[in-house]
Amino acid sequence: MTFITELENTFAASSNAENALSMAKYMKDLFPFYGIKTDERRAILKSVCKKHQAEIDSNARTIAWELFLKKERELQYCGIEIIIKSLKNNYIIEDIVWIEKLLITNSWWDSVDTISKYILGSYLEQFPTEIATVVQRFSNAENMWLNRSVILFQLGYKSKTDFHLLQSLCLKHSHSNEFFIRKAIGWALREYAKTDPEAVREFVLQSNLKPLSKKEALKNI
């Protein structure tokens, strides 16, 4: 039995119809769910991975992409988590092609935020010379989720955050009426405020950001 087949069978056996309905509703009914909560899902994934580790090690990208194309959201989450674990510090420069595909496929805030921080962020940390090219392409894209991803990719960078770049992206998208863009601007600034609160406060007070972005950015200062 292949890894994906066993994972699907185990999830199906562990499904919970009541949870599935509430989880789908929370996600605006964009995706069906097995109804498996996060801790149980991760425990199942860990157990099945142990049985098929060699298969995963040799085919992580293919397996992750196949999972991400499945209809159930839990399988899509597993695809993301396999990439995070398997490819950290082991990306190749061409991986940006399918990272972009991940961001624009089955897109919603839950997947995009995780991919942005833990996959795109890790990729660009490994290949910093690609930052300018990727940021320009994604920030100029018509796809809102690509725009959001480059606002958020530095979420885990802390003191290594390029605050000048973050400021430029916030200003570039400051007039957006998209809720998810306004929220991302505030979130990214709020996160960096843990490192340099005065710099964030000064930037926000001097910038013409939307009220939601300002509120989110200054929430903990």
Give the key terms:
DNA alkylation repair protein, Leucine-rich Repeat Variant, 2 domains, 13 helices, 221 residues, globular, mainly alpha, 0% strand, DNA_alkylation, ARM-type_fold
CATH class of the largest domain: Mainly Alpha
DSSP strand tally: 0
Distance between the termini: 53 Å
- Helix count equals 13
The proportion of strand residues reads under 5%
**Tally of discrete structural domains:** 2
**SSE order, as H and E?**
HHHHHHHHHHHHH
Oligomeric state of the chains? Answer: single chain
Overall mean confidence score, pLDDT: 97
- Sketch the major β-sheet: none
The CATH architecture classification of the largest domain is Alpha Horseshoe
Shape from CA axes? globular
Unreliable stretches covering 5 or more consecutive residues: none
Secondary structure category: mainly alpha
> What share of residues is helical?
55-70%
CATH topology of the largest domain: Leucine-rich Repeat Variant
Radius of gyration: 19 Å
Organism: Flavobacterium ammonificans
Protein name: DNA alkylation repair protein
What's the quick description here?
The chain is an all-alpha fold and 221 residues long. It has 2 domains: 1-87, Leucine-rich Repeat Variant (Alpha Horseshoe); 115-221, Alpha Horseshoe (Leucine-rich Repeat Variant), CATH 1.25.10.90. The chain contains 13 helices and no strands.
